Amino acid sequence: MFGKLKSGFENFVNTIKTKELSEKNVKQALDDFKLALVKNDVAYSVAQKITDAVKEKLLGTRVDRSTKIEVMLKETIKNTVREILLASTPIDLLEKAKEKTAQDQPLILVFLGVNGTGKTTTIAKVANYFKKHGVSCVIGAADTFRAGAIEQLEKHAAKVGVRVVKHEYKSDPSSVVYDTIAHAQAKHIRAVLIDTAGRQVIDKNLMKEMLKIVNVADPDYVIYVGDAMAGNDVVSQVEQFSQHVRVDASILTKIDADPSGGAALSVSYITKKPIIFVGTGQGYDDLQPFNADWFLKKITEF
Hints:
Layout: H1 3-17, H2 23-39, H3 44-60, H4 69-85, H5 93-102, E1 107-112, H6 119-132, E2 137-142, H7 149-160, E3 163-165, H8 173-187, E4 191-196, H9 204-217, E5 221-227, H10 232-242, E6 249-253, H11 262-271, E7 275-279, E8 287-289, H12 292-300
Parallel strand pairs: 1-4, 1-5, 2-3, 2-4, 5-6, 6-7
Antiparallel strand pairs: 7-8
């Protein structure tokens, strides 16, 4: 996991520590470093920020070889990455659910994303996470567009023991949202999870539908579900979605199979919104809250 990005950092440090710290040598090494980051799914603006921070430290500080330049470089990289990961305020869904319960209202989450990211499975994982922490929940089947979507959602929901509110196919997804929230309020259910149809940004009608869903739901959080394996594509996707509907946080799936780690770093920096969970496998328990220190350790300890 994240081996390629980690190797990029390590190779840069090993190159610099064996060279004379002239501006020419540093520039070449930084150019190679930036290219290595971009090749490992780090968005260009993020790669630029990291290399600028390292350049400033290298050229702005007189480093005695006896002080181990390697230590200084590692700390600079680690501090810059930490700053990127902590640029947004973390979201604790369990704490938020508790706050909403005190107001006798459910926590409302709307999930969106492109096709094939594992959104429906992820919703089941989130429902399972809530249940394990004593938070009751209900799922709204607002994907009335794709054939088989409701049955797929019901199958996952049954396995984690959560009810699904549904309508017929081709019905108005917003009416499903309305009924799901009304059901949660009547039954004092603490969390509402709304599944929506996977869509491409170029589909104007589906994007208008998404905006209507969000307006009807008035959710506490709109959560983008992206595939970590998609690399820089996931950054482009969430940026484009943000132009049509608000995005408050992200969940990255398949992070256990991601060889680079660049997507997580880039999404954090570009969106300035937190990653709240990462998918770490195919089981319903394979979902963990995103932890910046855990991620930092994975990519910078070498």
